[in-house]
Write a structure and sequence with these properties.
This protein is of the alpha/beta class. The protein has 2 domains: about 15-160 and about 320-375, Rossmann fold (3-Layer(aba) Sandwich), CATH 3.40.50.1400; about 165-310, Rossmann fold (3-Layer(aba) Sandwich). It is about 40% helix and about 10% strand. The chain has helices at about 30-35, 45-50, 55, 65-80, 100-110, 125-140, 165-185, 205-210, 215-235, 260-270, 290-305, 320-335, 370-375, and strands spanning about 15-20, 90, 115-120, 145, 150, 155, 195-200, 240-245, 275-280, 310. It has a 4-stranded parallel β-sheet with strand order 2-1-3-6, with helices on both faces.
């Protein structure tokens, strides 16, 4: 019989790595941070200064670091509530504390095998594989990557969790609350459109995001259908919905996933839509893509169009989400022990693999030299 997750056994893991993107803490950090994000692309500092205007509008400080600290504290509290003694270490790809800082901390704790929880719910190059590559390159630079994998701390990973019940329930709660806010603002909830929003990616990355189940966009469409159905049941009326994208970057000649949320709002306003709820299901916290692209830019578009608009919250530290992450940790530990486990999901897609396929989620629009070979070793599974 498959194992249930009532056990608090996290073995063989002796630490949890909360692994995120990172962001600047002050104005002086912005360009160095963006250099890290765009490393190898040859983008001049003058262009990075232009991109950095989003951050400068918030004092040069990204919300993401404080949000990661809040999630870390929430995970620690939930682990303690369940009687689980497991240290949580935070590290970032692009800013302090860097991946190597997190590995230092893990080693100081005496960790031998850690499990990584990436703050991206979906499977794609930028949402999964790029974190694996960063960890592989970091270990290689530290001299801790042998032919058979890691010879320092060994890393496994928690599966992509977009279709886990905890993530979905937290989003349902946030959207229902947003419909209440819309009514309080004088909108008509029964006539409103629910627009799910996620980070756009190049179409080449979309094509390469197929693992054995579904592309990046298909993952969002699957979970969006579930959330909309559950919200409709809560509200007692139909909830028409669609998916839009934000945060496009790169040259205009490179196709990215569309429609952009601002273009979609403009088109729907022309068709007579007057009330909208935007739900950022592609993000786990209210970081810069939400604070600027939605709260600033898209809300301004909606106002110009005469729409009544509300932005639903992200899952953040909602109890359903945090509890679900701990469930995923216990699920991954059971799988690592060789137990048969029922992997909880909602929607039509199955649970994505915890042990990634060697060639999954390739970027294909310019692989970093040598990184795929490093990444495919048995160090971060």
């Amino acid at each position: 019989m498959p194992t249930t997750l009532h056990s608090a056994d996290t073995g063989p893991y002796d630490a949890l790595l909360l692994y995120s993107f990172g962001g600047p803490n002050k104005a002086e950090d912005v360009v160095p941070f963006l250099r890290n994000v765009t490393a190898g692309k040859g983008i001049p500092d003058s262009r990075l200064e232009e991109v950095g205007e989003h951050y400068y509008g918030f004092g040069g400080k990204s919300p993401i670091n404080e949000q990661n600290l809040a999630l870390k504290a929430a995970l620690e509290a939930e682990l303690a509530r369940r009687g689980i003694d497991l240290p949580v270490v935070w590290g970032n790809r692009n800013w302090e504390p860097y991946t190597t800082d997190a590995i230092d901390e893990l080693e100081e704790l005496g960790a031998k095998r850690a499990v990584a929880l990436v703050t991206s719910a979906y499977s794609s190059y930028s949402g999964c594989r790029q974190y694996r590559e960063d960890l592989a390159v970091t270990l290689d630079r530290r001299g801790q990557l042998g032919d058979e994998g890691s010879i320092g701390v060994r890393f496994d990973k928690i599966r992509s969790y977009f279709n886990h019940p905890g993530f979905v329930q937290a989003n349902v709660e946030a959207v229902v609350e947003a419909y209440g806010e819309l009514a309080a603002k004088g909108g008509a909830p029964a006539e409103a459109r629910l627009v799910f929003v996620t980070h756009s990616i190049p179409t080449t990355m979309e094509a390469a995001s197929v693992v054995s189940h579904a592309t990046y966009s298909a993952q969002h469409l699957d979970v969006g259908a579930v959330i909309a159905e559950r919200v409709a049941a809560e509200l007692g009326h139909e909830v028409p919905w669609e998916l839009a994208y934000c945060s496009r970057s790169g040259p205009p000649s490179q196709p990215w996933l569309e429609p952009d949320v601002n273009d979609l709002l403009t088109e729907r306003a022309g068709e007579g839509l007057r009330d909208v709820v935007m739900s950022p299901i592609g993000f786990v916290s209210d970081h810069m893509e939400v604070a600027y692209d939605l709260d600033t830019e898209a809300m301004a578009t909606a106002t110009e169009l005469g729409m009544t608009a509300v932005r639903a919250g992200t899952v953040g530290t909602r109890p359903a989400f945090v509890s679900g992450l701990v469930d995923l940790l216990l699920e991954r530990a059971a799988l690592a022990r060789g137990d048969e486990v029922d992997e909880a999901t909602v929607g039509d897609l199955p649970a994505f693999r915890s042990v990634c396929e060697v060639d999954c989620c390739l970027r294909r629009d310019g692989e970093p030299s040598g990184v795929p070979a490093l990444c495919s070793r048995d160090l971060y599974r």
